[in-house]
Amino acid sequence: MAEGAETRVADDGLRRPWGTILAFLLPALTLYVALTAYPAVRTFWNSFHIVLPRREEFVGLANYVELAGDDIFWRAVSNTLVWACASPVIEVSIALLLALALYAKVPGARFFRVAWFTPVLMSYIVVGILWLWIYNYDWGPINVALRALGLDHLARPWLGDPDTALPALIFVASWMWVGFNMVVLLAALHSLPREVIEAAELDNCGWGGKLIFVILPLVSATLLNLVVLSFIGKMKIFDLVWITTKGNPLWSTETVSTYVYKRAFEWTTFDLGYPSTIAAVWFVIVLAAVLGLTRLFKLREKLEY
Amino acid sequence: MASLKRSILLLILCGYTAFAAGPFVWAAMLSLRTTTEIHLDHFALPDPIHWEKFPDAWFNSNYATYFLNSVQVVVAAVLIVTIVGAMAAHCLARYRFRFNRLIYFVLFSTIIFPPQITIISLFQVLVNYGLYNSKLGLTLVYVAIQLPLTVYILESFFARIPADLFDAARMDGYSDWEIFWRVALPVALPAVATTVILNFILLWNEFLFAVVLITEEANRTLPLGIQRFIGDTQEDIGMIATGLMIAIIPVVVIYAFFSEKLIQGMTAGAVK
Amino acid sequence: MRNRLISALFGLAVGTAAWTGGATAQQAVELTLWSHWSAEVPKRSFVEAAIAEFEANNPSIEIKATWYEKNALYAALKTALRAGQAPDIFYAEPDQVEYMDNGFLLDLSSLNWDAVEPWAKEAWTYQGKPYGLPLEAWTVELYYNKQMLADMGVGLPDDLQFSPDAFADLVKKTKAKGITPLSLGVGDRPYPGAHLAHEALLKKLGVADYSNLLAGKLSWTDTRVVDTLTWLTGLSEAGMLPPTFSTLKLTEAHIYFHTKPGALMFLNGSWYTSRAFNTPDKGGQPAGFPLGIMKFPAVPGAVCNECRSIAVGGSYVANADTTHPEAAIRFFNSFLKPEVGNRWLENVKVQTGIKSDPSKITDAQAADYFSMIAKTNAGAKYHFGIPIQVMSGKPKEVFTQVINNALPAGNISVEDAVKQLSEAY
Questions:
Q1: Within 10 A of C35 (CB to CB), how many other CB atoms are there?
Q2: Closest Cβ opposite residue A17 in set B123, B176, B267
Q3: For each of chain C's 425 residues, which pLDDT tens digit applies?
Q4: Which of A270, A272, A274 should be substituted to probe chain C, the one whose Cβ sees the most C Cβ atoms within 10 Å?
Q5: B255 contacts chain A (CB < 8 A)
Q6: Do B212 and A265 touch (CB under 8 A)?
Q7: Does this chain's domain C29-136+313-356 share its CATH topology with C140-310+372-424?
Q8: Which residues of A touch B147 (CB under 8 A)?
Q9: Chains with ≥3 Cβ pairs under 8 A against A?
Q10: Do A53 and C75 touch (CB under 8 A)?
Q11: Residue C406 and residue A266: Cβ atoms within 8 Å?
């Protein structure tokens, strides 16, 4: 990486063949403007209007006012935030433990790594259907196992009970992503300089001490990235919910994505303005959260050094 | 003592492996059994093994259409996004000009955009362009959503190619385009391979944009096709499982061949 | 007539319509039709037969039908209509006011309405104009397994309606035998669970006050409403419904009732037949199944125990933007004959909005079924439409989540339920 930075500075930096630059950038920029930037701007524009198929009407902040009092929206926000905060913690911490285990050179590490990674290859759709079966009341493995253990009273329709539906889905998402996080962390561990860890060993550090004082600080950048990545992923979550519960029961698994989709394409209104308002507000929230998260970690890093 | 610790650790790891891969193995077993057999015992081994269910799902459930649609859309999108993204990444890494970092940052920051921000207007835009409910429209949208990640991974790799290489090429009379096409791209092949695999897997599984932008049966991609299976009618668990397996196979094959590459790329570029 | 001649000549001369391009576009009309019922064989074959007959009588018009399942169809239509890519004719139900609100539907005033039941026309009339061809009409019926009831040693009263106490007893007795008293599931539909509440509330309040309740003019916190919902909750708590109620799908609930594991009763629209009268391998009831129909039980303190819901269901509407409105209307009119109405009754075995004569039915199973329906509907006073057809927007969403799903599942208290609903308007 250091080398790369040097060459960049060493480049003459004076050649600015604008024609060539434009030719290289134009396709990407065109696609970007037409299919990302313009739609995003249009969403904001929509959010101040009622957008019906044959009629558009400026309504000012009316959609925003309605949104502020829309308890289904706030329910969806809280569900999504719970999910986005719980998932990174679960995923990254389990992944770290698993990665450390593999780092300790257990036999069959290669096999484990491949096996653990498989859930991520499947789409949320496939995973969703599989877990619908796993959570099935009558013959799903979970209830079958509970009944076999004589714990019949614990058997329940996991996705049909408002108390368990959201945790059950969070569990599925974590199941899916732990392997991915583990693989990334393992790679980060392998790239650590040997000497540092050996030095720690000489200093008579125990495993716990080594983990907290040596390894964690060294992989903190990777950890941060994984946390942010997982966080963003869960703030977007749609597929898994749509295929399993569609936000039921009693809005207990409603996420912002499913609510936007429902309001735009399922509810008995054709208005695209209000769902655009939800999207716009959510965009701001996600942006603020990601920036805040990054800043928080940076701040801690500074304090530590 | 140490070996005891070790065996306990190994036991835990095996347990976790069963947990991580178990559902997949279970689904694979279901895919080879008929629904009647499954209802008798949900956890039995396939006996006899019903291989014929695979051609059955392929020919009788419109699976061939979904699969080919997915192949068309995803292959085209990956091809376009790789070329367009590599061009932009090369340009941003190689030439220094005003707004260079600004353009890079704007492109890159899209990675954190929640899809809701574009999905509704994309629907409107594609309707306006006459691209709604068409494979071409979906392909272009896929290119647009994977563009930031592609540029990001490739830019960091291109930036590491020593400038001497380009100077030498220029002395040999290569044009700017030739430098990109015949020098930069071949050198960056490992990174390109990573983005290809990554984009392929992500797009192969994509659902939200497909569900909004495609309604016609003839244009449905695999994830939409699978979703249709769990519709109104009585669930044909055995057949759904077969369908799931067909959908996973391409990804698993690609992963089996390129897992090292993929992991290298992800750890080097996408995440770190 | 002349058009047909010309098109026939063209057909002879050129062989294929594609060759002549614009010239034949006017003669060889193709109407596209999107319909629900991809898996409901009787309805689908009825419509396919009607299409074949219409095409035979009108060689210049071709109807290209695409069959969907309901949720997929609705999703496809919502976007296709907005994108201007909707078909000429499509399936709709009268609750989809948004279609009419946004001017998507063709005014069908010129249809042969004399052949339609007045209440069915009324169901499709919006701001003075009719918009739909009301093929299917249905009532909410309480089906039961005659054999099972006899085994229980319980006799059904002559008027087919249990008193509240007798019904509660029946539920307890059935449950004690390890049998689920009433099959019902809301895994994939926004209304089955609500059948319980709306049939009970309608009886308790009478037609007028019940309408007010749905329209938000009578508060959901009214004591009569609370009492009725509490009574129902008591039944649910006594174990009336399947433990899988919240995830059980419509088709699965049918099978739960008549095949496995078997329930004593099943509350469903009278279109029960379209699934249950299939062969068992297609999810139908077993051969010789002892099907009976009883009235919904009397409700404590009800003012109108003979009140019940009737609804217009599956209908066809035409796209306001269709380029061939006359062809669409001609197609619709081909349904509006008593013999077609009878054919519907005979084959589909559900009521219809087309005027028909049930006494002329020859099919034994259909005749038997309609005589049972006639008995439960004798002397009935009707409310038109079920709540989700009458409600819209947020009240509808809250009603679905609370009354359809959460309350029967025991996931919410009656106080919370009525509070949420009264705040939704």
A1: 21
A2: B176
A3: 444 444 444 444 444 334 334 444 446 899 999 999 987 888 999 999 999 999 999 999 999 998 888 877 888 888 888 888 889 999 999 888 889 988 999 999 999 999 999 989 988 999 999 999 999 999 999 999 999 999 999 999 999 999 999 999 999 999 999 999 999 999 888 999 999 999 999 999 999 999 999 999 999 999 999 999 999 999 999 999 999 999 898 988 999 999 989 999 999 999 999 889 988 887 889 999 999 999 999 999 999 999 999 999 999 999 999 999 999 999 999 999 999 999 999 989 899 999 998 888 888 888 899 999 999 999 999 998 899 888 888 899 999 999 999 999 999 999 999 999 999 98
A4: A270
A5: yes
A6: yes
A7: yes
A8: 28, 31-32, 36
A9: B, C
A10: no
A11: no
Under CATH, to which class is C140-310+372-424 assigned?
Answer: alpha beta
Domain definitions of chain C by residue range: 29-136+313-356, 140-310+372-424
Asked if CATH classification 3.40.190.10 holds for the domain at C29-136+313-356, the reply, yes or no, is yes
Domains of chain A from N-terminus onward = 63-304 (1.10.3720.10)
The Cα of A19 is separated from the nearest Cα of chain B by a number of Å equal to 10
Chain C residue numbers touching B231 (CB-CB < 8 A): 69, 71-72
Taking the Cβ of residue B149 and every Cβ of chain A, the question of whether any pair is shorter than 8 Å is answered with: no
- Domain locations in chain B as residue ranges: 57-270
Domain B57-270, CATH among 3.40.50.2000, 3.30.70.260, 1.10.3720.10, 3.30.479.30? 1.10.3720.10
Q: What is the pTM of this model?
A: 0.87
Which chain C residue has the Cα nearest residue A133? C247
